[in-house]
């Protein structure tokens, strides 16, 4: 475990980023945020990594900013220095997850609140334990919102529902989160690790470059008109059409075999 409480491990093409401050419910100190950002960038750049899992330790996924550290900072540090953490840490964390050129799975083992919820929503998949829950939390302490949640949450559940959860924070338990479309799958707590591993291994064995292109296309279309989105789709199809994975998959189809993807 690092001193900041972030553990980074790679096995079988899956990078696992674990927040490991269980006694503090994996809240985010400045050091934790910095190491989390570094781990995300490392996973993104590592060509051997074909899927990323983000999870927590103990009874929480992540409850967001460490408010003890924040309270002390409000008494001793300039405000511009305190809030520099948004562009320096929270924004790069969200951007790194949302634009990761490989699938990202949030394995939500417990409460995800504030920036912790934002981190989960920035991932591509969310597998949640039955006892997990999500709480936007920001407005409850008189703040706006960060870590990309203003972008990700409306795209998951629609603007009206997102505004409601952001302006009137409450705990959304796993079952309701599933109904709202916030999570991919809800499992028993004792099945979370195996369900996450199953999904991660499936994704790690898939067409990594195609997954990256799909993410780029979906993100691009969110801020462009149809003509531009169609043009961008064409570019991504041409790019993935030149990959070895595509050629091998077509050959496997013709031979009536299951394709094997190597991420190239």
**How do the SSEs run, as a string of H and E?**
EEHEEHHHEEHEEHHEHEHHHH
Instruction: Detail the poorly predicted runs.
Output: none
Helix segment tally: 12
Percent of residues in β-strands: 15-25%
Question: What portion of residues is helical?
Answer: 40-55%
Task: Using the coordinates above, name the CATH class of the largest domain.
Answer: Alpha Beta
Q: What's the average pLDDT?
A: 96
- Total E-strand runs: 10
Lateral arrangement of strands in the main beta sheet: 1-2-3-5-7-10
Shape: globular
Based on CA atoms alone, the radius of gyration comes out at 19 Å
The CATH topology assignment of the largest domain is 2-enoyl-CoA Hydratase, Chain A, domain 1
Assign the structural class, choosing from mainly alpha, mainly beta, alpha/beta, alpha+beta, or little secondary structure.
alpha/beta
Could you explain how this protein is built, in words?
The chain has 264 residues and is α/β, with parallel strands linked by helices. It has two domains: 6-204, 2-enoyl-CoA Hydratase, Chain A, domain 1; 208-254, Lyase 2-enoyl-coa Hydratase, Chain  A, domain 2 (Orthogonal Bundle), CATH 1.10.12. It is built from twelve helices and ten strands. The protein has helices spanning 30-45, 67-76, 79-83, 85-98, 115-122, 149-157, 159-167, 174-180, 192-204, 208-221, 226-241, 244-254; strands at residues 6-11, 14-19, 51-56, 60-62, 104-108, 111-113, 125-129, 133-135, 172-173, 185-187. Helix 1 links the parallel strand 2 and strand 3 (51-56). The longest helix is centred in the first third of the chain and has 16 residues, at 30-45. The protein is globular, with a radius of gyration of 19 Å. The relative contact order is 0.11.
């Amino acid at each position: 475990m690092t001193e900041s409480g972030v553990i980074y491990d790679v096995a079988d093409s899956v990078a696992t980023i674990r927040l490991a401050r269980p006694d503090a419910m994996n809240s985010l100190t400045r050091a934790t945020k910095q190491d989390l950002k570094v781990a995300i960038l490392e996973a993104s750049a590592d060509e051997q990594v074909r899927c990323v899992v983000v999870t927590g330790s103990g009874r929480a996924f992540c409850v967001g900013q460490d408010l003890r550290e924040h309270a002390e900072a409000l008494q001793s540090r300039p405000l511009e220095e305190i809030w520099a953490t948004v562009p320096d840490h929270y924004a790069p964390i969200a951007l790194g997850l949302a634009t990761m050129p490989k699938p990202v799975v949030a394995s939500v083992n417990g409460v995800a609140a504030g920036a912790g919820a934002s981190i989960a929503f920035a991932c591509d998949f969310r597998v949640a334990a039955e006892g997990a829950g999500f709480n936007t939390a920001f407005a409850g302490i008189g703040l706006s919102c960060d870590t990309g949640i203003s972008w990700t949450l409306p795209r998951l559940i629609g603007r009206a529902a997102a505004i409601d959860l952001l302006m009137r924070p409450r705990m959304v338990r796993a079952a309701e989160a599933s109904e709202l479309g916030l999570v991919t799958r809800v499992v028993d707590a004792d099945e979370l690790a195996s369900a996450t591993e199953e999904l991660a291994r499936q994704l790690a064995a898939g067409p990594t470059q195609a997954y990256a292109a799909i993410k780029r296309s979906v993100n691009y279309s969110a801020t462009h008109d149809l003509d531009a989105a169609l043009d961008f789709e064409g570019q991504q199809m041409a790019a993935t059409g030149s990959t070895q994975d595509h050629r091998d998959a077509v050959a496997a189809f013709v031979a009536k075999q299951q394709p094997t993807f190597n991420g190239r």
